[in-house]
Target: Protein NDNF
Amino acid sequence: KMPCFLFYLPLHLLMTACLCHSIKAPTSGSQQSFKTNLFNFYHSLILADGKETTVHLLKDIPKRYYFALEESRTLAPFTITVTPCDVPIEWSILVHKASAILCLPAGDHNTQEISTSQKAPSMVSTIFNYKGNSVETYMGMSSHSALYMLEFLSTERDTHITVYLTTDTTSGHLYPELPMDPRIDVIGVGHTTVTLTWKHSPSVLQNRENIQYCLLVNEKHNYKSLCAAETAIRSSGMKLPPTLALSLSPYLLEPQQVMILSNSELSIINKASSGEVRQICVGTKNTYTVPNLSPSTQYYFDVFVVNLLTNASAAYTGTFARTLEEPEPKVTELKEGKVIQVVLDGKRQKLHSLQYQARHKKIQFTFQLCRGQVQVHITKNGKTVASENISGLKYFSLKGKLMDTYLVQLRSTEDSNSSVKVQVAPRFHKPLFPLLPESLKIKSFSKLRTCNSVTIAWLGTQEDSKYCVYKKRIEEERVWTELQSADRCSGPESRPKSEKVLCKYFYDRNLQRAVTTETIKGLDAGTLYLFDVYLFGPSGIPVRYHSKVVKTRKNC
Model:
């Protein structure tokens, strides 16, 4: 039988004894047990006071950290905050009183084994345990010398957590404080916006310079910490630049800027696109309207109050909201033979429907592109009959019958505004637009340029039609803007009379010879000019050729 001896040890020796009690010398058949105990020993570490520690956990392998408190005449407070960064974990706090029972085998003083199998049950006790993925803080008081052990375990997969221990509760908080009511209130919901408000953190009211709010927006779920958000972003395969790895740091963001994480790249921009996660830092404002959301979509919102000096944060209780459904686009009734002009904003489709009773089997849709780029989609009784990107003038001849319903869907393919003229009429209806040549390009002849004249040419048709030529001086830096902003549906009536050069009629039954040239004189040397040709049909509605920019010779 083993005699037991009770020793009251100094605190640092007690810590050594407690760390070493799990190591047993290998005996016959216990080699594997020794390796396991040795592994556990090297995973038992001292927890730093006043510093946030990152702890990496392997699945099903517990990890232990220790810290000691000296004897005090008054109650000494301490706090421990644990932040899971991914899956739920189990963690507990055990306390060892400042004494130990060491049992040595009688008569065998060479044995190195230290056994705790017969220590008093009151020596070690569990004072706290928790299981979950929420940020949890334990506040304790102690007046005796004691050794505390924190044990952490992840049963789902490898993960990491952060642990913060402090015994100094008088010099401020590492983590910003939350208000008594940490909920986020949704006070407004629109088609593309959600307005949020929350109560101020006491830390913001005390120290506005070093504290700010950051908002996290995503479509999946709420995050209980910034640490958890970072882990989710990393696990999705997105790449973070080294300066931003493991951090959504507000140091890098100006107020109102948005951090977008999408397409495996990270960028900080002022306009949201289809990002996975957005972080918006808003300074010390406690009301914010989140812009650029998608209609009829559920979003999750989290607010974190962040200490800029330490990058530590505290999470408000997350909320969610669903944006309103986008209103049905306005549908305009098209009337046979009537021309309407549609302006598209580049972001929203505009639908135009036609319902008519026809005595004729064929109808014709006519589209004249005025500005930008437009896609046309036509359905008849719900089935697609035509779909195309248009440029210039385009006709669609379709077979129809009584009570057929046509729906014309127009969409701008550019971010800027586009516009188009639309007409529908029976095929026998008098043409609204003139017969067009194969090409609407204007050609200039470089060899025929002089210091005060240029020669241009364009194609005509087999119909005798009127053509008017206009010119305009233009600065070189304005060329691109002029060409992009030109309204190809506007006629010469919108231009000053001083820009008119001439009008002429011509045609040729042989299309191979339906070409005309014109030499424009009285120009200035070394000057850029923009030339336009307008073709007028029987109805008087003009079609504008593509503008041509030509520069006169500087020296002759």
Notes: The first helix runs from residue 11 to 20.
